[in-house]
Every structure is written in structure tokens, then in C-alpha cells.
Design a protein that fits this description.
By secondary structure, the protein is mostly helical. About 60% of the residues lie in helices and about 0% in strands. It has helices spanning about 10-20, 25-35, 40-45, 55-60, 65-70.
Length: about 80
């Protein structure tokens, strides 16, 4: 299956937002836990930016997820 690179940032952002809300975290809370600025996290959640691997790993750690779990996206 080919990955649609045009929708990848939006799908990843949606996943991060869902996981954050499941854990009852604000954007500010998750940003602090992941060592990111809140506006950076907002851009990721809105699909405006695609994070690098280090940022994905920071988010996974902050959400107590593994890398495979955090990048398991539904297309």
C-alpha cells in the first residue's frame, strides 16, 4: 500500500490530538512533557507541520507510547 504523503501530516496530527485528549492533557501539558513549544505542538496537531524523528520520539515518550504505536495511522 502506498502512503499518501499529502495526508500524512494531517493524519499524524489527528493521532497526536486523540492520544493527548485520551490522557486529559492540554496542548501546553503535552508540549512541556515533550520539550516542545505549545505553538509547535499546535502546528503538528493541525497538520501544518510534519515532525522529524526526534520530535516523534519525544511525543511518544511524553504519551507513554512506543514509536510503532505512535506512527500506526489509519488511512
Amino acid at each position: 500500500m502506498m502512503i499518501d504523503l499529502d495526508v500524512l501530516p494531517k493524519e499524524f496530527g489527528k493521532k497526536i490530538k486523540i492520544e493527548r485528549i485520551k490522557r486529559d492533557l492540554s496542548q501546553e501539558d503535552l508540549a512541556v512533557l515533550a520539550g516542545l513549544h505549545r505553538t509547535t505542538l499546535g502546528g503538528l496537531e493541525n497538520g501544518k507541520n510534519m515532525p522529524n524523528l526526534e520530535t516523534i520520539a519525544r511525543l511518544a515518550n511524553a504519551l507513554n507510547m512506543t514509536l510503532p504505536e505512535i506512527v500506526d495511522l489509519d488511512f
